[in-house]
Amino acid sequence: MLFTREIDYAVRTVRALSQADKLNVHQICQAEHIPPAFGYRILKKLEQGGILTILRGSNGGYRLTADPEKLTLMDIVLAIDPAFFLNECLRREYHCPNNPRQSPCQIHTELCRVQAVLESELRRNSIASLWGNSPKTCAQSPEESNS
Predict the structure, then answer these.
(1) The whole model's pTM is what?
(2) 3-class DSSP assignment, residue 33
(3) How far apart (Å, rounded) are the C-alpha atoms in residues 44 and 144?
(4) Coil vs helix vs strand at 135
(5) How far apart are the first and last CA of the chain?
């Protein structure tokens, strides 16, 4: 699992739409530096996920339908990738030969815990609260702080 480029573009698409009543694909892509080929695909998935509405016709475009006060990063992630897992072994249908029921794999157990924390954090704040905060930089990675 990675926070894919497609998920990144989806978050930026929602940001653009949250700042306007209606935008067309070219306006979104230009404002958020998204390649148009990605833009159409992302907009379709966000529409299927109930996050936006496609307005048809000559004055058509896209409008955010999800409430930014309730919409979270997790909602956007799941609209783009409904099978958002750290590792394939976390999927219910996956049968790992290293994780028998009689002797559960400790790595699997830890990945389940980390997956739950990640999902909780992605649900923690609304999109509206993220847009309202001043930009912050990420903390240094352990590799950077050791140099």
Answers:
(1) 0.80
(2) coil
(3) 39
(4) coil
(5) 28
pLDDT tens by residue, 77-116: 999 988 777 666 676 766 777 666 677 777 777 888 888 8
Question: How is the chain split into domains, by residue range?
Answer: 5-134
Check residue 57 and give left, alpha or beta (phi > 0: left; psi -120 to 50: alpha): left
- The neighbouring-strand residues paired with 52 are 64
The CATH number of 5-134, from 1.10.1670.10, 1.10.760.10, 3.30.70.20, 1.10.10.10, is: 1.10.10.10
Alpha helices in the chain (DSSP H): 5-18, 25-32, 36-48, 73-80, 106-123, 127-132, 142-145
Which token pair is 70? 């309730």
What percent of the chain clears pLDDT 90, i.e. is strictly above it?
A: 54
Report the C-alpha gap between 8 and 21 in whole angstroms: 22
> How many CA atoms, within 13 angstroms, populate the side-chain half-sphere of residue 139?
3
Nearest to 14 by CA among 63, 54, 59, 56: 63
CB 17 within 8 A of CB 52: yes
